[in-house]
Task: structure prediction
Amino acid sequence: MRWARWLLAAIPVSWALAWLDAPSLAVFIAAGLAVVPLAAEMGAATESLAARCGPATGGLLNATCGNAAELIVAIVALRAGLVDLVKASLTGSILGNLLLILGLVLVASGRRQAIVSFNRCSQRRTRPPRPRPPSICRRGWRWCSGSRTS
Result:
Protein backbone atom coordinates (compact mmCIF):
# COMPACT_ATOMS: atom_id res chain seq x y z
CA MET A 1 0.00 0.00 0.00
CA ARG A 2 2.93 2.34 0.56
CA TRP A 3 3.77 2.19 -3.13
CA ALA A 4 0.41 3.77 -3.94
CA ARG A 5 0.74 6.74 -1.58
CA TRP A 6 2.62 8.85 -4.10
CA LEU A 7 -0.43 8.62 -6.35
CA LEU A 8 -2.36 10.75 -3.83
CA ALA A 9 -0.80 13.73 -5.58
CA ALA A 10 -3.09 12.94 -8.53
CA ILE A 11 -6.14 14.08 -6.53
CA PRO A 12 -5.36 17.83 -6.59
CA VAL A 13 -3.93 17.43 -10.10
CA SER A 14 -7.25 16.06 -11.36
CA TRP A 15 -9.13 18.89 -9.63
CA ALA A 16 -6.81 21.48 -11.15
CA LEU A 17 -7.10 19.95 -14.61
CA ALA A 18 -10.89 19.95 -14.37
CA TRP A 19 -10.91 23.57 -13.12
CA LEU A 20 -8.60 24.68 -15.95
CA ASP A 21 -10.82 22.97 -18.56
CA ALA A 22 -8.06 20.60 -19.64
CA PRO A 23 -8.83 17.84 -22.15
CA SER A 24 -11.24 15.24 -20.81
CA LEU A 25 -8.72 12.43 -21.30
CA ALA A 26 -6.15 14.16 -19.08
CA VAL A 27 -8.74 14.70 -16.32
CA PHE A 28 -9.86 11.09 -16.62
CA ILE A 29 -6.31 9.70 -16.39
CA ALA A 30 -5.48 11.88 -13.38
CA ALA A 31 -8.73 10.92 -11.63
CA GLY A 32 -8.14 7.24 -12.43
CA LEU A 33 -4.68 7.41 -10.91
CA ALA A 34 -6.14 9.16 -7.85
CA VAL A 35 -8.59 6.31 -7.26
CA VAL A 36 -5.84 3.70 -6.84
CA PRO A 37 -4.47 4.86 -3.45
CA LEU A 38 -7.95 5.64 -2.18
CA ALA A 39 -9.11 2.10 -3.00
CA ALA A 40 -6.00 0.68 -1.32
CA GLU A 41 -6.68 2.71 1.83
CA MET A 42 -10.31 1.65 1.87
CA GLY A 43 -9.32 -2.00 1.46
CA ALA A 44 -6.82 -1.78 4.31
CA ALA A 45 -9.37 -0.09 6.57
CA THR A 46 -11.98 -2.72 5.75
CA GLU A 47 -9.53 -5.55 6.47
CA SER A 48 -8.55 -4.10 9.83
CA LEU A 49 -12.21 -3.63 10.79
CA ALA A 50 -13.01 -7.16 9.65
CA ALA A 51 -10.19 -8.53 11.80
CA ARG A 52 -11.70 -6.87 14.88
CA CYS A 53 -15.37 -7.62 14.17
CA GLY A 54 -15.20 -11.32 13.41
CA PRO A 55 -15.80 -13.35 10.26
CA ALA A 56 -19.52 -12.69 9.75
CA THR A 57 -19.41 -8.93 10.20
CA GLY A 58 -16.06 -8.79 8.41
CA GLY A 59 -17.51 -10.56 5.40
CA LEU A 60 -20.41 -8.15 5.33
CA LEU A 61 -18.02 -5.19 5.53
CA ASN A 62 -15.85 -6.58 2.74
CA ALA A 63 -18.87 -7.18 0.52
CA THR A 64 -20.28 -3.72 1.20
CA CYS A 65 -17.08 -1.70 0.94
CA GLY A 66 -15.76 -3.80 -1.93
CA ASN A 67 -18.65 -2.56 -4.03
CA ALA A 68 -18.44 1.07 -2.92
CA ALA A 69 -17.54 2.31 -6.39
CA GLU A 70 -20.54 0.56 -7.90
CA LEU A 71 -22.73 1.96 -5.15
CA ILE A 72 -21.52 5.51 -5.80
CA VAL A 73 -22.08 5.14 -9.55
CA ALA A 74 -25.58 3.77 -8.90
CA ILE A 75 -26.50 6.65 -6.58
CA VAL A 76 -25.23 9.31 -9.01
CA ALA A 77 -26.98 7.62 -11.94
CA LEU A 78 -30.26 7.28 -10.05
CA ARG A 79 -30.18 10.97 -9.12
CA ALA A 80 -29.68 11.74 -12.81
CA GLY A 81 -32.62 9.49 -13.71
CA LEU A 82 -30.53 6.84 -15.49
CA VAL A 83 -32.35 3.76 -14.22
CA ASP A 84 -31.30 1.61 -17.21
CA LEU A 85 -27.65 2.40 -16.50
CA VAL A 86 -28.06 1.27 -12.89
CA LYS A 87 -29.73 -1.97 -14.01
CA ALA A 88 -26.96 -2.66 -16.50
CA SER A 89 -24.28 -1.83 -13.94
CA LEU A 90 -25.76 -4.14 -11.33
CA THR A 91 -26.25 -6.94 -13.85
CA GLY A 92 -22.68 -6.59 -15.05
CA SER A 93 -21.37 -6.54 -11.51
CA ILE A 94 -23.24 -9.68 -10.53
CA LEU A 95 -22.24 -11.56 -13.68
CA GLY A 96 -18.66 -10.37 -13.36
CA ASN A 97 -18.41 -11.50 -9.77
CA LEU A 98 -20.08 -14.83 -10.46
CA LEU A 99 -18.21 -15.73 -13.60
CA LEU A 100 -14.86 -13.99 -13.27
CA ILE A 101 -14.20 -14.67 -9.60
CA LEU A 102 -15.49 -18.24 -9.73
CA GLY A 103 -13.48 -18.89 -12.88
CA LEU A 104 -10.30 -17.50 -11.35
CA VAL A 105 -10.79 -19.59 -8.22
CA LEU A 106 -11.35 -22.75 -10.24
CA VAL A 107 -8.33 -22.12 -12.48
CA ALA A 108 -6.06 -21.28 -9.54
CA SER A 109 -7.16 -24.29 -7.53
CA GLY A 110 -6.93 -26.54 -10.59
CA ARG A 111 -3.32 -25.54 -11.08
CA ARG A 112 -2.57 -26.59 -7.52
CA GLN A 113 -4.55 -29.84 -7.38
CA ALA A 114 -5.93 -32.03 -10.12
CA ILE A 115 -9.20 -32.71 -8.29
CA VAL A 116 -10.74 -30.07 -6.06
CA SER A 117 -13.54 -30.95 -3.65
CA PHE A 118 -15.51 -29.17 -0.98
CA ASN A 119 -16.11 -30.90 2.32
CA ARG A 120 -19.34 -29.53 3.73
CA CYS A 121 -18.86 -31.36 7.03
CA SER A 122 -15.55 -29.64 7.76
CA GLN A 123 -17.17 -26.31 6.98
CA ARG A 124 -19.84 -26.95 9.60
CA ARG A 125 -17.28 -27.73 12.27
CA THR A 126 -15.79 -24.24 12.03
CA ARG A 127 -19.09 -22.60 12.94
CA PRO A 128 -20.25 -22.33 16.54
CA PRO A 129 -22.75 -25.03 17.46
CA ARG A 130 -26.36 -23.99 17.18
CA PRO A 131 -29.45 -25.57 18.67
CA ARG A 132 -30.80 -28.33 16.49
CA PRO A 133 -33.72 -30.70 16.80
CA PRO A 134 -33.02 -34.28 17.86
CA SER A 135 -33.18 -37.41 15.68
CA ILE A 136 -32.06 -37.11 12.05
CA CYS A 137 -30.08 -33.87 12.48
CA ARG A 138 -28.21 -35.26 15.47
CA ARG A 139 -27.24 -38.39 13.52
CA GLY A 140 -26.11 -36.21 10.63
CA TRP A 141 -24.04 -34.07 13.00
CA ARG A 142 -22.37 -37.16 14.43
CA TRP A 143 -21.63 -38.36 10.91
CA CYS A 144 -20.10 -35.01 9.95
CA SER A 145 -18.07 -34.70 13.11
CA GLY A 146 -16.42 -38.07 12.56
CA SER A 147 -18.19 -40.33 15.08
CA ARG A 148 -20.19 -42.60 12.82
CA THR A 149 -22.08 -44.45 15.54
CA SER A 150 -25.84 -44.21 15.39
Summary: Helices lie at 10-19, 24-53, 55-66, 68-79, 83-112, 120-126, 136-145.
